[in-house]
Amino acid sequence: MSPPLVDIAFDYVDPGSWMVLLRLDAGVPGVELDPSRIRWRPLEFRTPEEAPLDAGDAAWRALHEGLRTEVEAMGLSLRMPTRVPRTRKAHELAFHARERDRFAAVHRALFRAHFSEGLDLGRVDVLSRVAENAGLDPAEARTVLGVDRFRDAVVAERTALLEAGVRGVPTVWSGAEVQQVEEARVEGYHGAQSFAEALGSVLRIREHDGGRNADPTTREI
User: Which residue among 76, 174, 190, 200 has the highest number of C-beta atoms inside a 10 angstrom radius?
Assistant: First the structure.
């Protein structure tokens, strides 16, 4: 089996991560990318041991407002969260969805629940409803979340990404191994055109050298 072509570090409360998903779903001009060749890698904004993000923080609010027009132009709504939930349980649900072959539906539903519906992704009852609406058994989802079945998997992903040099979300890179993240990556989201140009550039670097000897270049998107 071929390795994933593109890895994306993300979090469900990060508006830039949502925009990357929306742009990839819509199709990026000049970029041919099979969705099956994308590997979404969870990176929690805040662990349960850390203080939560302040939803009233000026920079955090500006990040959302800066994307509102772009989101609405795509026929979607972007609600300003009144609080920023921790997302470990949401990521655990996504791991469960992978096992049940429902990741794509649950992945999109979790972003939509937070940004368009204003739901609290830190609550198991909310997550079980999201799971049900995306085609999973809600009782099974509650049980899986209640026993922290995928907690270690979420923690391990975060640790691996940070040790590899990922500094935040969204971060997009091309290569089979997480250790290759330093070779060519794009960080952040700064609009559709910048995203398309940066992603195309990174993919061309990887195609040119076969994923082995790319210059250690970081590009903002």
Answer: 174
CATH of the domain at 184: 3.40.30.10
Q: Which tokens hold the place of 182?
A: 């330093």
Helix (H) or strand (E) holding 113: helix 103-115
Instruction: Tell me, yes or no, if the pTM score tops 0.85.
Output: yes
Q: In the chain, how many domains are there?
A: 1
- For 18, phi and psi rounded to 5 degrees? -65, -40
Long-range CB contact pairs, 162-169, < 8 A, 24+: 162/43, 166/9, 166/43, 168/9, 168/43, 169/9, 169/10, 169/11, 169/14, 169/16, 169/17, 169/43, 169/45
